[in-house]
């Protein structure tokens, strides 16, 4: 029987000092391996879209994350 649940948006924070290559690897994991990040039987990977991943409100994206999203999506 399905269990009603509540989805809570999460924000992944990184220091501006985090190495660009590490940030790009994290972005790639979120973009290309989202389904593997959500436990089996859970719903949620469908919400990990390019638009939702960069929706950080007033918090700026790490410059390398911004650059990687532009490489991938223009």
Low-confidence stretches: none
Class inferred from helices and paired strands? mainly alpha
Biggest beta-sheet profile: none
- Beta-strand fraction estimate: under 5%
Share of residues in helices: 40-55%
State the end-to-end distance.
Answer: 42 Å
Q: What is the radius of gyration computed over CA atoms, rounded to a whole number of angstroms?
A: 14 Å
Give the SSE order as H and E letters: HHHH
Overall outline: elongated
Number of domains: 1
- Number of DSSP helical runs: 4
- How many β strands by DSSP? 0
Give the rounded overall mean pLDDT: 84
Would you write up a description of this structure?
- There is one protein chain.
- The chain contains four helices and no strands.
- It is an all-alpha fold and 74 residues long.
- It has one domain (20-73).
- 8% of the residues are buried.
- This is TAXI family TRAP transporter solute-binding subunit.
- It comes from Leucobacter insecticola.
Question: How are the secondary structure elements laid out?
Answer:
Blueprint: H1 20-32, H2 34-37, H3 50-53, H4 63-73
What is the compact description of this entry?
This is TAXI family TRAP transporter solute-binding subunit. It comes from Leucobacter insecticola. The protein is built from four helices and no strands.
